[in-house]
Amino acid sequence: MADQNPDERLQTEFNRWANQGEGEKMAAHHLYITEKTIGLMNLRPGERVLDLGCGSGWATRLLARIVGEGPEGFGQVVGLDISDEMVRQARAASKDFDNVMYVCGSAQQIPWEENFFDKMLSVESFYYYPDQGRVLGELFRVMAPQGRMFILINLYKDNPYSLQWVDKLKVPVHVRSAAEYVELLKQHAFENVEWRQIPDDTPTPDDYQTKSFRSLDDLKAFKRTGALLLIASKPNLRVPAPGYRVY
Length: 247
Ligand SMILES: C[S@@+](CC[C@H](N)C(=O)[O-])C[C@H]1O[C@@H](n2cnc3c(N)ncnc32)[C@H](O)[C@@H]1O
Prior knowledge:
Blueprint: H1 6-19, H2 22-40, E1 48-52, H3 58-67, E2 69-70, E3 73-74, E4 76-81, H4 84-92, E5 100-104, E6 117-123, H5 132-142, E7 143-153, H6 178-187, E8 191-198, H7 216-225, E9 227-233
Parallel strand pairs: 1-4, 1-6, 4-5, 6-7
Antiparallel strand pairs: 2-3, 7-9, 8-9
The structure holds S-adenosylmethionine.
Residues 7, 10, 14, 26-27, 30, 53-55, 59, 80-83, 86, 106-108, 123-125, 128-129 line the site of S-adenosylmethionine.
């Protein structure tokens, strides 16, 4: 891995996760907080949605069911992931959908056209992106004017229990606070930036085995504190203001 660039390292690591069946396991871990977030997205039939860091595509399919055919047209969901193995599994599980497309690529260079997506969801992926500012620049480019972004992050400073994972991960991650993320989004010209915490209210069985946390009590405290949800809008602009860095 030493001679790989940061994106290649992420691809290797998440291909390993995919081959170990982690794609589907993550669905079980992230479903509750994702459903709560989708409930806040005010999705409408006909909308175009990006699932950034889609993994095995379970959330992409949830989104696709909601925006499918409707009076305003045919809604479409694009799942993007750096891991070609995650994308392969996502495609295999989505054969029944005709409004879903998966692409393998980096969030730092989104292979899509300008001003396209009405909404963006990213579940547990954003803190892996080596250059988060560059990703926000790309999101500014591909989001439609007034498009809304919903970024769910389980690993962040304001949930101290989540910090137990940092040393266990085999790739570098960003550890920021909610306030630092809000500042980052504002620096990249997004507006109506807000954040909230989404607790995971699912029960934890007493015999649950955890490798990620020091104890079951820490896992329960982590779930009570909850994930960070960042919400932001692209301004009503098709091109950024002069001086804004476009990649
Ligand atoms: C923890 S998993 C979450 C996957 C999925 N959203 C879920 O909740 O099941 C993180 C995902 O982000 C993807 N990812 C990491 N870095 C990425 C990057 N730079 N560009 C695109 N995807 C990336 C990984 O391949 C992985 O599938």
